[in-house]
Design brief:
By secondary structure, the protein is mostly helical. It has helices spanning 2-10, 19-41, 47-77, 82-104, 111-134, 139-158, 161-169, 171-187, 190-198, 204-207, 212-237. It has one domain (18-234): Rhopdopsin 7-helix transmembrane proteins. The structure holds retinal (RET). Retinal is lined by residues 89, 92-93, 124-125, 128, 143, 146-147, 150, 188, 191-192, 195, 220, 223-224. Its main location: membrane.
Length: 245
């Protein structure tokens, strides 16, 4: 009996209408499942493609651990776990930049390209955090700066150096690069929308306020798992002795 009451106080109740809590929970399971999928598939690929798929798995695994913290934080405090959210992004978004570098390496991508993308993503995230958690009355200013860094990333991969390398690589790599570019242009654009729903600025009178967490959770599932699957599909195409088809 005593054991029972301890358990009840540790595992919080979930209100059936707590949709935010639901997306945190499903997010945790989806990220965990995706990680197992990527890790367990590793041995099937040619050696030089394993690192890329491994990084896909690391991205979803790091997210899974953060989602376990975030879902508990949410159910205990009923407020956005902004700190854990950004720690997750600080680790996973640079890893997505590494993915661009890894697939373009065959065309001669240099680590300077990778560090440039990582640097831009860190600027995007630091300024986003300042606007969302620290200087909340200046959210539009910090969000604007963050948006500029985001657009430079979009430029680099769509039209800049990364694009040229993808064209030089051609074939399946060019195709995969294009899809990843769409993820960054459309999938990543969901995040500033969530930010605008959760902060006050010129946009508030137009779009109102809403659940930033539902928007971020959906975006994370699309971007982290979808992005990883594009890499997975590319690795399959590039593997000669296919064990899988
Ligand atoms: C797995 C997590 C990912 C791919 C997170 C991506 C996050 C962004 C692209 C965030 C962008 C933001 C802006 C462009 C402006 C407002 C502040 C941010 C940080 C939400």
């Amino acid at each position: 009996m005593e054991k029972m009451s301890i358990l009840l106080s540790v595992v919080p109740k979930i209100d059936p209408t707590d949709y935010v809590g639901f997306t945190f929970f499903v997010g945790a399971m989806a990220m965990m499942g995706a990680s197992a999928f990527f890790f367990l598939s590793l041995s099937q690929f040619d050696r030089k493609w394993r690192t890329s798929v491994l990084v896909s798995g690391l991205i979803t695994f790091i997210a899974a651990v953060h989602y376990f913290y975030m879902k508990d934080y949410w159910s205990a405090h009923m407020e956005s776990p902004t700190f854990f959210r950004y720690v997750d992004w600080f680790l996973t978004v640079p890893l997505m930049c590494v993915e661009f570098f890894l697939i373009l390496k065959v065309a001669g991508a240099k680590t300077s390209l990778m560090w440039r993308l990582i640097g831009l993503s860190v600027i995007m995230l630091i300024t986003g955090y300042l606007g969302e958690a620290v200087f909340t009355n200046q959210a539009e200013l910090w969000g604007g700066i963050s948006g500029v860094a985001y657009f430079v990333i979009v430029y680099d991969i769509w039209l800049g150096k990364a694009k040229k390398l993808a064209v030089a690589a051609g074939g399946d790599i060019l195709k995969a690069h294009k899809i990843l570019c769409w993820f960054v242009l459309v999938g990543w654009a969901i995040y500033p929308l969530g930010y605008m729903l959760g902060t006050e600025g010129w946009y508030t009178s137009i779009i109102g306020t809403g659940s930033v967490d539902i928007v971020y959770n959906i975006a994370d599932a699309i971007n982290k798992i979808g992005f990883g699957l594009v890499i997975y599909a590319l690795a399959i195409k590039k593997t000669d002795n296919k064990v899988i088809s």
